[in-house]
């Protein structure tokens, strides 16, 4: 393989897929789970609610950077999630360590953004589910910086309705105290609680092509997450402040948040 081909494979999302990274993930999971349990002593509830086989979506609230580590560590089966592609594209020793770490915890690189980037991310998640894997997603779209639970975007419901995968709601408690936004290192004094709720079959709401079905399914999922996390409800979407008049108009108009 040429050096150019080698470089391409490092940045190719397919080279980090579960099929290619299975051994590294298995080793990382074998090491990380017992180590994290010793250090953080997480409280784990409802593990029996996670199906042992077949496609499943773990839909969680999102409070901290470490949420994507807490869920795979607590789950009774391998769980995969999408992570910013920049975590896999660094150079030198730091880049290599970042790439190996995120691969070992089940992360799959994706280029984030709106429009086509968002559709590509949904398609990548659908392929994981089509392979019978478990994926973790955050319906809020981004971390809550004030601890409240924001309205869910409909991408999770779309995937569930499209693939038929059950949705297991997850309530994370305390991850924002273990590693607050802006912190460089996690605290060793706090404990995390991970609660897995009963699986939800959203198919009764209708087809994936129906905006009403996606909204109803999303609201049902968010209600279950709220019951597990106990957070205050924000009642709005978690999105950055509008940067200009066009963005303000877009946010004011009624539209479905994917």
Automatic annotation (TrEMBL):
<feature type="compositionally biased region" description="Basic and acidic residues">
    <location>
        <begin position="8"/>
        <end position="17"/>
    </location>
</feature>
<feature type="domain" description="Phospholipid/glycerol acyltransferase">
    <location>
        <begin position="56"/>
        <end position="175"/>
    </location>
</feature>
<dbReference type="GO" id="GO:0016746">
    <property type="term" value="F:acyltransferase activity"/>
</dbReference>
<protein>
    <submittedName>
        <fullName>Lysophospholipid acyltransferase family protein</fullName>
    </submittedName>
</protein>
<dbReference type="InterPro" id="IPR002123">
    <property type="entry name" value="Plipid/glycerol_acylTrfase"/>
</dbReference>
<feature type="region of interest" description="Disordered">
    <location>
        <begin position="1"/>
        <end position="20"/>
    </location>
</feature>
<feature type="compositionally biased region" description="Basic and acidic residues">
    <location>
        <begin position="247"/>
        <end position="258"/>
    </location>
</feature>
<dbReference type="Pfam" id="PF01553">
    <property type="entry name" value="Acyltransferase"/>
</dbReference>
<keyword id="KW-0808">Transferase</keyword>
<feature type="region of interest" description="Disordered">
    <location>
        <begin position="238"/>
        <end position="258"/>
    </location>
</feature>
<keyword id="KW-0012">Acyltransferase</keyword>
């Amino acid at each position: 393989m040429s050096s150019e081909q080698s470089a391409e494979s490092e940045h190719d999302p397919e080279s980090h897929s579960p099929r290619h990274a299975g051994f590294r993930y298995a080793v990382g999971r074998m090491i990380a789970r017992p180590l994290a349990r010793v250090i953080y002593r997480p409280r784990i509830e409802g593990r029996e609610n996670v199906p042992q086989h077949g496609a499943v979506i773990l839909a969680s609230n999102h409070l901290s950077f470490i949420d994507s580590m807490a869920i795979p560590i607590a789950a009774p089966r391998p769980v995969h999630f999408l992570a910013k592609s920049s975590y896999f594209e660094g150079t030198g020793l730091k880049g290599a360590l970042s790439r190996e770490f995120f691969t070992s915890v089940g992360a799959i690189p994706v280029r984030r953004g709106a429009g086509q980037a968002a559709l590509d991310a949904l398609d990548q998640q659908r392929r994981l589910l089509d392979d019978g894997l478990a994926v973790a997603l955050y319906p809020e779209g981004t971390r809550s910086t004030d601890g409240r639970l924001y309205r869910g975007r409909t991408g999770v419901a779309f995937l569930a309705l499209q693939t038929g995968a059950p949705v297991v709601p997850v309530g994370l408690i305390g991850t924002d105290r273990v590693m607050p936004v802006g912190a460089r290192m996690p605290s060793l004094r706090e404990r995390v609680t991970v609660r897995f709720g009963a699986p939800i079959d959203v198919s009764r709401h209708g087809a994936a092509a129906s905006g009403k079905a996606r909204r109803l399914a999303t609201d049902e999922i968010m209600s279950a997450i709220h019951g597990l996390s106990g957070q205050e409800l924000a009642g709005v979407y978690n999105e950055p402040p509008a940067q200009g008049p066009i963005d303000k108009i877009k946010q004011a108009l009624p539209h479905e948040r994917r």
